[in-house]
Design a protein that fits this description.
This protein has 70 residues and is mainly α. The chain has one domain. Helix 2 crosses helix 3.
Amino acid sequence: MLDTSAEAARVQALVHKNMGADARFRIACEMSEVFRRVALDRVRKQHPGLTESQCAAQLVWELYRVRIPS
């Protein structure tokens, strides 16, 4: 991490280490949800004529190169 001091990174690693697996999993899920919302917002702005289903399909295409019916 280029924007984090070595001390801050050390403290963050210690905090994560001391969390239980369930807390780390919950944080990962929350981060995934935030990413998904931000990514869908970007797709909506780039393709304003698409429906929500089409936006989701477009995001899947961009991330995984898999076409799904929308």
